[in-house]
Amino acid sequence: xxxxxxxxxxxxxxxxxxxxxxxxxxxxxxxxxxxxxxxxxxxxxxxxxxxxxxxxxxxxxxxxxxxxxxxxxxxxxxxxxxxxxxxxxxxxxxxxxxxxxxxxxxxxxxxxxxxxxxxxxxxxxxxxxxxxxxxxxxxxxxxxxxxxxxxxxxxxxxxxxxxxxxxxxxxxxxxxxxxxxxxxxxxxxxxxxxxxxxxxxxxxxxxxxxxxxxxxxxxxxxxxxxxxxxxxxxxxxxxxxxxxxxxxxxxxxxxxxxxxxxxxxxxxxxxxxxxxxxxxxxxxxxxxxxxxxxxxxxxxxxxxxxxxxxxxxxxxxxxxxxxxxxxxxx
Length: 330
Known about the structure:
The chain is mostly helical and 330 residues long. It has helices spanning 2-20, 28-37, 44-75, 88-101, 107-128, 134-157, 161-172, 180-199, 201-207, 211-216, 221-243, 249-263, 273-294, 302-325. α1 packs antiparallel against α3 and α4 (88-101) packs parallel to α11 (221-243).
């Protein structure tokens, strides 16, 4: 529990810093005074109506991506598994690209991305089969992702330059243009999914033991895997539909939570879904702070900075696995 409290405290501190930065910067005391004064204050609109939705959107999307990443790594029994392997991100990108190239903007893009993500999820389940094992799911997900990603690239290459630029920018992932309606959308979806994931935690723990042992313990493996896979896919779909395909967050969240639990010497049994969700939110807010630090006057896509954070971690995980195989690493 100490690790969850530490992550929550870190998230609150980073969120407060995120609210304070930008073109107009505030000290902690000034930020508290703005919130205390309420709507009558001069800076209320800036902080509460413009900045707070962005921070809450980063937290909500991070929760969804962290939860999805932890589910994928447990389901596939692989610490390098990421939500992108399901093909959902590529499906959302294709849906958004089709809408953008048709000339639509705003909520229509979000709806198109959501439908594309659900379509990719349906394709994954249909092609892999309801009784598919872990390896078949991974290969099918990668195939769906590559196919849909290639189709998106083909459409962009043949599109008008302005529309193609808009599509490429969306595919980088961004928190820009956040407002309360957009923020509420991801929270309304991710909270019930989180509850569903926690309800299936015992099944997830048994699945980590292997299919045969899970069946011997009385678990309906096929039904449990499909249910948890659907929760993971819908979680990443909720995030990607709202902020775009932000990479590496799902991959980083669970290892970050595990590392913190080891530092704090917290006892942990089975997949730490809550820890991974909080860690995903922390990573998203850190990436947003990097955006504000580098370009406070012309906000860059947040996906650029999650890539900067995630690529070294991916290399570290690969090197750690290689050292374990030769008996060098702990």
